Amino acid sequence: MQENFNTQESVEVQVGSEYFEYLHHQQDSVYKASDYCRRRFAPESKYEEEAIILNGFKPLIFEISLQWISNPARRIAYDPDGLPQEPWLSNAATIWLLGKTLQCSNDFDRYTLSQFIQTCAFIAFGPWELIEKGATKGSLCRFSDHWITWNHQLVGPEPNEYSGLRAARTALTAPVRDPRTFDIEHWYSECGKYMRPRCLHDPIARLEKSNEAKRPKPRPPAE
Prior knowledge:
mainly alpha; three-stranded mixed sheet; 7% strand; globular
């Protein structure tokens, strides 16, 4: 059954100083954007006729998000030889944060995280402090904590861009692996909370388990 959210002629979204207006027949795109929008424009909402105001985000961030909503794509696989692409190189973390604000779908979350994983090593000024403040939980928070811990170990005690961040203060002596190599589902699973999970999302742990399974088992001694 087709949902009839309201009878407004248009929906208005304010992002920074710019306004986006959607005619009534275009509102499905806005509703698909997020659970938040669906509830906001439901007939019983007292805010139904007010514009959605997204403070702290640039219009470009909203436009990129709507492009994905209009034409959803599956998450990308991490390619160690892949080159970063704009606009995701500069904006993936912020787009993920907007998705959380608008309560976008799990597919949107996975796509934006996969873009961030592919590009994070090439960002000139890493958004790690922004993530630590804005993503207190969720997939991006877990990946970021692992990335900061791994890089902080590599750099050593000298002052660096990770100094002072929560994850950099984690006292770990055993080496942490490059988090980009983990299967993306790791960051949505309980094991994603841990720095050395030894789970099957880790390709090295998976290979070790596979090799172990292939080893001939010792025969029991003859009676």
